[in-house]
Amino acid sequence: MQPRRAQQPITIRSDRAAARLAVLTRDGRSQVEVIEAALDAMPEPTSVETPEKAALRARLDATIARLQQRNIPSMAEFDAREYDERGNPR
Prior knowledge:
- The chain has 4 helices and no strands.
- The protein is mainly alpha-helical.
- It has 2 domains: 11-41; 51-82, no CATH class.
- Helix content is 53%, strand content 0%.
- It has helices at residues 15-24, 31-41, 51-69, 75-82.
């Protein structure tokens, strides 16, 4: 946990939310504890896998698999092939 002065301050932009937070912190809990409890209670966002997204993902995975199978020279191998010992192009 970061020191208190290194943490970013909580910014509440609505008066309604600030009043609600004040009510929820009357029992001695800190604002951070109340907000973290509320965030923990929220359901995790789910991504909707549409057929278009699935097709795009399959195409990308196939392209990545083809690229990983290629024999790409390292920079040292490329330099040795393209330049002579003095650094001039061959």
